[in-house]
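Same chain as my last thread, 254 residues:
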Amino acid sequence: MKILNTVVITTVLAIFALQVDVAYSATAEEAVNDANRVESNVEKDGARKPAGMLAFIDLDAGATVLDYGAGGGYWSELFSSTVGNDGMVYAHQNAGERFDSNKDALTTQFEPFSNIKLLPLARGSALTLDNSSVDTVMLSYLYHHMHYVDGSGETFPESSAALMGEFLRVLKPGGTLIVIEHVAVAGSSRTQSADWHRTPPATAKADITGTGFEFVDEAPQLYMNPEDDLQNIWYETGLSGKTTTFVHKYKKPN
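reply #2:
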């Protein structure tokens, strides 16, 4: 009888644990349909294909995410539901006048999401996060500002390499870096592609792996537009939200 009781108790505990996990994390579809998302972000879903992206990122319940350059919180809101109440999303913002003017609105926007924390930091400053404390870093449509700065020529800028070092520091071993960026035509220079607000995928891969990350995977079919010639300033040519975009996944070595 004791053996039978032990089996029953173990089974009940396992079922309860499964129910708790399901209760505190959302599927990609549930995250997309979360009623707390603001309308201005929901309107971007057609272009950003969040369900496919969340499946590619593959966050676990309870994960900690750094949404670097979170802006209006598009991905932060989606990550919040995905990681659940036991997880945490740091919505990074560049500290300064622009953030100061948006702080109250962002605070109100994120209030229904109990696990989103604003993280305002001065440009170039170290991340105020512990070593090996983050599961995933998101870098969405920012890399074209990082692969070139005035005077850096065809060399990866030191400031950007330092930021990659910070990402490596805060990521757990095996933690991932997700990079989403407008594609620039292969062979274009850093200067030229930066003028287009784009990056050649091979340039990003060489830069990032050169700092110590390992390339893991990509999602080449997620954002494809055959009408995008990859050598235009997309916001001047009617391609906002319609560019061919690369999606890379990197990881911190174990």
